[in-house]
Design a protein that fits this description.
CATH superfamily: Nickel-containing superoxide dismutase
Number of helices: 6
InterPro entries: NiSOD_sf, Superoxide_dismutase_Ni-type
Shape: flat
Number of domains: 1
CATH class: Mainly Alpha
Organism: Candidatus Wildermuthbacteria bacterium RIFCSPLOWO2_01_FULL_48_16
CATH topology: Four Helix Bundle (Hemerythrin (Met), subunit A)
Order of helices and strands: HHHHHH
GO molecular function, one term: nickel cation binding
Protein name: Superoxide dismutase, Ni
CATH architecture: Up-down Bundle
Oligomer: single chain
Helix content: over 70%
Radius of gyration: 21 Å
Distance between the termini: 53 Å
Length: about 150
């Protein structure tokens, strides 16, 4: 009978799969994934900007295909890592940092908010200024994260 009610409830309100760091909380946090993702955004932006367009004077279909393929791949990786950076930052912001950290680091919310917005902007644009600003913001958060372990 118990299983009947569980199946009935699940049929009416199906469970949705969710993803999170762990929400136990496990106490295992690091800024490294966000830093690596931000550095990847910088590198992909660099590669996109360095990519030469196909030559129309001596147009070569294979060369054009390869350059377009590279461009699409660089954009996809930049997008993925900007999103990963945002997700990793949000884990630190919402799961690791506590109200007592705000006493020591009063600019914490503003710093995270700015970094999260830069993740979105890095996806929207191919701008080295935005990519470098994102990396700098994540480095600031990583620095605060390290300092918070010493308090």
């Amino acid at each position: 009978m118990k299983h009947f009610f569980f199946r009935l409830f699940n049929a009416i309100v199906p469970a949705q799969e969710v993803f999170a760091h762990c929400d136990i909380p496990c106490g295992i946090y690091t800024a490294e994934p966000a830093l690596t993702a931000a550095k990847t955004v910088v590198r992909m932006t660099e590669l996109i900007q360095q990519l030469e367009p196909p030559s129309f004077a001596s147009f070569n279909v294979e060369e054009a295909k390869n350059k377009i393929n590279s461009l699409v791949r660089y954009i996809a990786v930049k997008e993925q890592h900007a999103q990963k950076c945002k997700e990793e930052l949000l884990i630190l912001w919402t799961d690791y940092f506590k109200p007592e950290h705000l006493e020591t680091f009063p600019q914490l919310h503003e710093t995270f908010w700015k970094a999260a917005k830069l993740c979105s902007k890095a996806k929207q644009e191919v701008s080295m200024d935005v990519a470098k600003e994102l990396q700098k913001a994540v480095e600031e958060i990583a620095d605060v994260f390290e300092k918070s372990h010493k308090h």
